[in-house]
Amino acid sequence: MNQADLFVKALSGTVDLAFGVPGGAIEPLYDALHRAEQRGEMRLITTRHESAAVTMAEGAFRASGRLALCCATTGPGALNMVTALASALEECKPVLAVTAQTAQARFGRGALQDSSDVGIDTTAVLAKVCKYSTTVTHPAQLLPKLRQALAHAMSAPRGPVHLSVPADVFKAPIDEQLIAAQLAAISRVEDSVGAPLQLRPSQLAQLATHFERAQRPVLVLGEEATEEMPSILQFLARMNWPVVTTAAGHGAIDTDHPCYRGVVGFAGHSTAAATVAGADAVLVLGSHYRDLCVAATPALLDGRAMHIAPTSKSFAATVEGTLAIQACIASALAVVGAAAAPQAPLQRVDVRPVLGELPFPAPPAALNAVMNALALPLRGFFDAGNAWSWSLHYLPANEQLESIRAMGLGQMAWAIPAAIGAAVADHDTRSVCVTGDGSWLMCSHELSVAVQQRIPVVFVILNDCQLGMVKHGQAMGGAEPAGFHLPAVDFSQLARAQGAVAIRVSTRDDLSALSERLREAAGGPVVIELMVDPDFAPPMAERVRQLKEAQAS
Q1: CA 26 – CA 28 distance, rounded (Å)
Q2: pTM surpassing 0.90?
Q3: What share of the chain is helix, strand, coil (3-state, %, to 5)?
Q4: pLDDT tens digit string along 5-64?
Q5: Do 296 and 365 fall into the same domain?
Q6: Helix residue ranges, H only, 178-241
Q7: 548 part of a folded domain
């Protein structure tokens, strides 16, 4: 055993999935990961790009709640991780990134891909997109710094962490007498969020006063509300408040719930906008308050709103007129529930447009039909672009269709590796990625990972031969029609060339036959190329207005 073997052994019980791209300097770690895989302790998946390795690790966490490892070699390998780590940081999702360094004796001496502090300092670069980033300069630091990294990753707000390890450190021999003590100290780092923050007496009074006389209260759920849904559903069962979600919070509550009134903000619903506009008191739970999520909704930006979230990161964009309290959501709901009067029971409202009235090439109708053809339950990953707007505005979210988006950074092609990582980590719920042709052109090489590993993931490509959100945004905003054109590509043929089952849907007959063709394609990845109307405008007028106002200010 060497230090790399000890490092992998220390992860036992915490990490059992590793994604990455090998290279010279990271080879000692790959040797140890391979040996662990041979023992049945680790699954090692070689991705086609280091950014995808990060996002697959994030997808694995979203599906299983377990931390995953992503690794890259020195220099460009480490730098390729930057965008995906930044997205994970914005999403508050933990991943453990390990990158290599050349041997320390070669630092500053012209070594290929020198990433030390006298070269291209990857530790410093990745520090900007991670909660914790450090270089291990001695074997005795390896496990203590790993322990610190795991604690940072899993403490609130969760996020990515990074260790940069020189090749000579990983290859160093170990002291057999110290192994037991070292491993005992890191056998498992539990989630270190700790006890939830409790409300102070002054905050208790503020909450109670704000809602005790409310006649038209509304509950708004953001992305951090998802982990508190049992308490939220108990509150709604007794209080009968209308509830809306932000775009990022879509999927937190079943869209068939009698209290549900739709999405407010990006690609939102008129029922949600009217509900919030008519409120005299608004309780916002766990929203990051980004412009995509609130879309300048007045009731969320003035004195009517109170914002409760378990982490202070949620308050970065909260405006001055909104009172923000960092506290346990469940404890805040208990205070409000005791102070406010229950409302009359609500009847279910179907907030989504009637899809049957749309012709087949219309993207939302075609997408809805494809999702209905897939066997439930599904875990849906929706990519940046029109996949966001169609799914938010037209698709349901419930126990049978989990709805996941990374709306913090808005990284194109994020959903492709995220769905693969989720499918690796959880075999019980089928992962489906809904993406656009622009995103697919960026990241379709990762399909070969799913083919090679026989990963049962479904990719739905909305093919309109353009960057649809760009085109329609330009038209709505009065900009020049430039840069959105894409070539007409038969993605189903490209997918077959990589070894995947591929189905092209361009007519109603293709759609009718889809269920049967999917049953024949069980066992590995499936690509559904969905040809859609390029001129059907997405529900994004509010986003265009925001952009125009920002450019004018």
Answers
A1: 6
A2: yes
A3: 45, 15, 40
A4: 999 999 988 999 999 999 989 999 999 999 999 999 999 999 999 999 999 999 999 999
A5: no
A6: 179-185, 201-212, 229-239
A7: no
